[in-house]
């Protein structure tokens, strides 16, 4: 059934939906239950460095820690991330030595300092994307001592009397590990000692030096801005895994650590749920505008993203959905009272009857049909049949639905909405893409195997111009 209803007035801003000026960072404590060391990983301190913050996000969504602990802040400067800015209020990585209470980022600095100083944290990694390729000697304008990309940075060679204080040794070992898995010989990593204590004024203002001053080991991991985002993230992850190995932190990884594997991990996890998961939208290839999204009348929108780099910003004219520094779509709502008397419906998909929960994304090869339920009206967005108000009981194929109503630009994802009289009950997405069907066919085997990527035989132990 097509939609021709005028948009309603906007709901009160939810605490789970941010104003652009009020985005806070998130902390993800990945605990194994097995005693061990704890590493704190920080991404997004500068918003124009997507290799770093995407790598940090992947750690939270695609890793399981099996001994020790990993804490991750993937989005420290969230506002600058969505604004594609090094720092909306100045460089956040220059505010650790001194910051005024009037600074808009004063509370952010206090919170991240408290996290760094937590007694459980043994070592800190700060992820950056830097210009060019750091080299000890001048090669050319992109490869010289004034560049920051492709290096592991320490503020000094060692930190006396501290566990893991052998900074140069740890960094050099990580450099060797990364250089054993280069995507291209020109991507070589190096170790940079900034000798901050000897008078490096700029580096004395940074997160890593604050950590060093408080007798904790810290490193900057730099990937080159000359590389595409997924390759930068690949190198960040290689370096992170090397440090985890040195601290005897073991893990399992849900993807192959290759350039294409990282790219897929970044781009294939872009969805969110709304309002107790009665709506789920996969927006990795969404249309620029999604209209008539049924939201709760007079209630805040509950936004539950699939990864920590997603944000919903209330513009007053809709909700802009961001994934890192990309705006993926704009939601235009229509407001309803919600009916919570039912949570699932019966459907026949490609000849197989199944119970489908609201919020599910259902792969379909050819045809689907919603079984009639007394009092429940079915609305397949983009499908129309003369004099039909309830579209249950009708076999529907992809070619029966107008492509311009799809959620995605490829015309594969379509909304099926359910209403109890005038109240909204829930939504299901039908996914006609061949990839989705193939994943559905293989899912049973994956679920029973219980295996994650990351074994020894795969090469992984389980276990800007100014730079930083």
From TrEMBL:
<keyword id="KW-0732">Signal</keyword>
<feature type="region of interest" description="Disordered">
    <location>
        <begin position="441"/>
        <end position="468"/>
    </location>
</feature>
<dbReference type="InterPro" id="IPR033397">
    <property type="entry name" value="Metallo_peptidase_C"/>
</dbReference>
<feature type="domain" description="D,L-carboxypeptidase peptidase">
    <location>
        <begin position="38"/>
        <end position="267"/>
    </location>
</feature>
<dbReference type="GO" id="GO:0004180">
    <property type="term" value="F:carboxypeptidase activity"/>
</dbReference>
<dbReference type="Pfam" id="PF17033">
    <property type="entry name" value="Peptidase_M99"/>
</dbReference>
<keyword id="KW-0378">Hydrolase</keyword>
<feature type="compositionally biased region" description="Basic and acidic residues">
    <location>
        <begin position="441"/>
        <end position="450"/>
    </location>
</feature>
<dbReference type="InterPro" id="IPR031489">
    <property type="entry name" value="Peptidase_M99"/>
</dbReference>
<feature type="domain" description="Metallo-carboxypeptidase C-terminal">
    <location>
        <begin position="338"/>
        <end position="432"/>
    </location>
</feature>
<dbReference type="Pfam" id="PF17129">
    <property type="entry name" value="Peptidase_M99_C"/>
</dbReference>
<feature type="signal peptide">
    <location>
        <begin position="1"/>
        <end position="20"/>
    </location>
</feature>
<keyword id="KW-0645">Protease</keyword>
<protein>
    <submittedName>
        <fullName>Metallo-carboxypeptidase-like protein</fullName>
    </submittedName>
</protein>
<keyword id="KW-0121">Carboxypeptidase</keyword>
């Amino acid at each position: 059934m097509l939609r021709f209803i005028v948009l309603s007035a906007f709901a009160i801003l939810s605490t789970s939906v941010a104003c652009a000026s009020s985005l806070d960072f998130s902390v993800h404590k990945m605990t194994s239950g097995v005693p061990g060391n704890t590493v704190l990983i920080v991404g997004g301190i500068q918003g124009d460095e997507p290799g770093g913050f995407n790598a940090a996000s992947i750690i939270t969504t695609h890793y399981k820690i099996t001994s020790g602990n990993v804490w991750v802040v993937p989005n420290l400067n969230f506002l600058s991330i969505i604004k594609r800015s090094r720092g909306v209020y100045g460089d956040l990585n220059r505010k650790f030595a001194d910051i005024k209470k009037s600074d808009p980022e004063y509370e952010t600095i206090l919170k991240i300092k408290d996290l760094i100083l937590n007694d459980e944290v043994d070592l800190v990694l700060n992820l950056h994307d830097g210009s060019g390729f750091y080299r000890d000697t001048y090669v050319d304008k992109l490869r010289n001592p004034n560049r920051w990309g492709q290096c592991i940075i320490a503020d000094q060679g060692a930190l006396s009397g501290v566990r893991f204080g052998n900074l140069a040794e740890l960094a050099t070992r990580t450099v060797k590990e990364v250089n054993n898995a280069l995507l291209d010989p020109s991507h070589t990593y190096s170790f940079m000692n900034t000798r901050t204590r000897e008078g490096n004024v700029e580096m004395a203002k940074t997160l890593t030096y604050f950590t060093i001053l408080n007798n904790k080991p810290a490193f900057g991991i730099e990937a080159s801005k000359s590389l595409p985002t997924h390759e930068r993230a690949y190198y960040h992850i290689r370096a992170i895994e090397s440090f985890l190995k040195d601290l005897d932190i073991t893990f399992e990884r849900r993807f192959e650590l290759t350039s294409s594997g990282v790219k897929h991990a970044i781009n294939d996890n872009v969805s969110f749920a709304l309002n107790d998961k009665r709506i789920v939208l996969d927006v990795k290839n969404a249309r620029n505008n999604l209209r008539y999204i049924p939201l709760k009348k007079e209630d805040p929108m509950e936004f539950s993203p699939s990864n920590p780099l997603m944000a919903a910003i209330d513009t007053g004219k809709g909700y802009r959905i961001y994934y890192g520094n990309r705006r993926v779509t704009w939601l235009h709502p229509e407001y309803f009272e919600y009916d919570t008397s039912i949570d699932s419906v019966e459907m026949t998909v490609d000849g197989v009857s199944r119970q489908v929960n609201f919020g599910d994304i259902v792969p379909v090869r050819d045809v689907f049909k919603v079984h009639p339920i007394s009092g429940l009206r079915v609305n397949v967005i983009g499908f129309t049949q003369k004099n039909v108000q309830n579209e249950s009981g009708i076999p529907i194929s992809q070619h029966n639905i107008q492509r311009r109503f799809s959620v995605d630009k490829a015309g594969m994802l379509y909304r099926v909405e359910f209403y109890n009289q005038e109240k909204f009950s829930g939504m299901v997405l039908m996914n006609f893409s061949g990839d989705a069907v193939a994943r559905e066919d293989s899912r049973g085997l994956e679920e029973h195997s219980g295996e994650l990527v990351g074994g020894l035989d795969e090469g992984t132990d389980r276990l800007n111009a100014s730079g930083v």
